[in-house]
Amino acid sequence: MANDDITKDAPLPEGRVSRWKLFLPVGVLFALFGALAVFWAWSIHMAGAQIDAWIAREASLGRTWTCPDRSLGGFPFRIEVRCKAPRFVRNDTGLKGGLEGITAVAQIYNPTLMIIEADGPLKLEDGRGVYALDWSLLRASLRGRPGERLDRLSMEGKDFALNWTDALGAARKASAAQGEFHIRRVVDRPADEHAYDIVTSLTGFALPALDPFTGGTGQAAFAFNGVLTHADPFAGVGFPAEIERWRAAGGKIQIKDMSLSKDASRLALNGELGLDDRARPQGALDIAMTGLDPAMKLFGIPPLRDPNGGKTTNLKLRFDRGQIFLGPIPLGKTFPLY
Q1: Of 58, 121, 247, 287, which cross-links 63 as Cys (Cβ 3.0–4.6 Å)?
Q2: What does pTM read for this prediction?
Q3: Averaged pLDDT for residues 10-31
């Protein structure tokens, strides 16, 4: 017995390492991996719960969303939600539509940034026509807290093709090579303005219905740069309730620069618009037109020329108390938007 006790307490021979020192790093690694797995499972569960809560909320507002085939994945560092063939129905208007699929991805260490990709075509029906919009690429990045606030939304797409049939059965089409849309919370303006910068563009835009107004068949380009005030919160309660909240809060669309160019024609404008207490447009726009004589002929308006002999015509449109004015000249009445 004495010899056994001496053997147990004897120091390890030189060069040998205690077994617990060998297995400790492995144990720590397994513990960290287990903690990560638990955290990921909890994150996935919360993501699924938020999606279900959003679908239920939309249903309470008369908008039904369905996803026949939804999957959650992305282990270990991502939260990935895939939905095949999502469908949408708005019960009050009969508008319905769907996509081929949509994928949303967020990193578990940065859940406020989400990357979204959509697979077309997008098909819509509203009782007056059938619309199909397809693309080769459509993706977006969204930064914010779902259901709380939006900090930034950016979208980009390529090779858009829109085909639709109107209520009379006539087939129409339009296309665009590339499009972008960006909306970002403005941090250097008063917080109570809830202002957002909006920048959007569309290039390689073709719409045959525009050709008679410009006298050419070339492609068009559209660009917009402006600020939308009192845009937060847009709670998703639908039109006109949200627009009425925006109007009552004093919301404005401040247009820094908006332009549409096609062939030799160009229309540019800037100004500010809002809604009065009867939901009619209120504000003023400065407009510059170049090469729009074909459009004026269609409406029986003699071509206008700049007094200095230039080719650009500058106009000022003013919307006030249900009237629209060209300078001091009244042109007609405006009507409530809702």
Answers
A1: 58
A2: 0.81
A3: 65
Distance CA 234, CA 20 (A): 58
Distances in whole angstroms, Cα of residue 191 to Cα of each of 147, 154, 252, 253: 19, 22, 15, 17
Average pLDDT (251-263) is: 95
Q: Is the peptide bond before 86 cis (omega within 30 degrees of 0)?
A: no
CA 255-260-151 angle, to 5 degrees, is 45
pLDDT at 77 over 80: yes
On whether residue 76 sits in a domain, the answer given is: yes
Q: Both 224 and 76 in a single domain? A: no
Query: Smallest Cα–Cα separation from 127: which of 92, 100, 99, 160?
Result: 92
Residue 245 CA to residue 307 CA, distance in Å, equals 44
User: Each residue of 144-183: pLDDT tens digit?
Assistant: 875 567 899 999 999 999 999 877 778 889 999 999 999 9
For residues 17 and 11, the answer to whether their CB atoms sit within 8 Å is no
Mean pLDDT of the chain: 85
For residue 226, the model assigns a pLDDT of: 97
Encode pLDDT of 96-120 as tens digits: 999 999 999 999 888 889 999 999 9
Is pLDDT at 6 greater than 50 in this prediction?
no
Name the nearest CA neighbour of 172 among 183, 185, 161, 187. Answer: 161
236 and 92 belong to one structural domain: no
Phi and psi at 13, nearest 5°, equal: -60, 150
- In the chain, the number of structural domains is 2
Domain span including residue 220? 186-338
Select from 155, 160, 156, 94 the least CA-distant residue to 130: 94
On the 0-12 / 13-18 / 19+ scale of CB atoms within 10 A, 292 is buried
3-state helix, strand, coil in the chain (%, to 5): 20, 45, 30
C-beta separation of 131 from 160 below 8 A: no
Same structural domain for residues 155 and 242?
Answer: no
| Residue 294, SS3 per DSSP | helix
* C-alpha triplet 326, 200, 253: angle, nearest 5°: 45
